[in-house]
Amino acid sequence: MNFFRSLAEKSWVAQTAGVDLPIVSSQPEITQGKTALRFFIAVASVIFFLFTITFLSRTQFADFQALAGEVWQPFTDPTQLWLNTGVLLLAGIGIHWAFISAKQNNLNGAIIGLSFGMLTSLLFLIGQLYVWNHLISLGYFVTSNPANSFFYLLTCIHGLHLIGGIFGLIKITVKFVNHHSLEKLSTGLGLCKTYWHFLFLVWLLLFGLLTSTPETYKTIALLCGF
User: In 118-133, which positions are buried (b, 16+ CB within 10 angstroms) versus exposed (e)?
Assistant: First the structure.
């Protein structure tokens, strides 16, 4: 009888009663997100590197006048840019805080960190626009000096990358509201955390570059062989 019962069984039909189904892992999705972010950061790094080399080469032309070095130059006292730098640092800290809170299943901490990160990111952009407006009010227009052009160009590109990151945060927030999954939220925030740290490092490089003195540019040019 057991033999005939075995023949009658439909082995191709899944037997689920009393059996724990395997949990589908989100690891492939996480891996894809990390790979995509690394690729994007690599491309963005190449873009900023090429602009930096072009900028350093352009500093050696006679019509280039640095925005710092002399008392009357606007970035001899870069106080506002230092304030913007501090705000961007706080934005990265806020998103990092949100990531850690989500990993620890701390919903309130994740919401506070995420909100703080988005708010300070917007404040950084507003601060950059304030610097733009200040330069224009002083007569430092885009086409009046190559140093001006590079400042507007590089800060604009950096700002656009930050705006893209903010849209990414909004997308993550919408997904979280729809699915209420702290695990998925922490995964997305982990990627954003890395991206914000990258943008902060890029800004430090741009800040130091754009506020350097003519003597610094000459030294760097000699070292680079320009």
Answer: bebbebbbebbeebbe
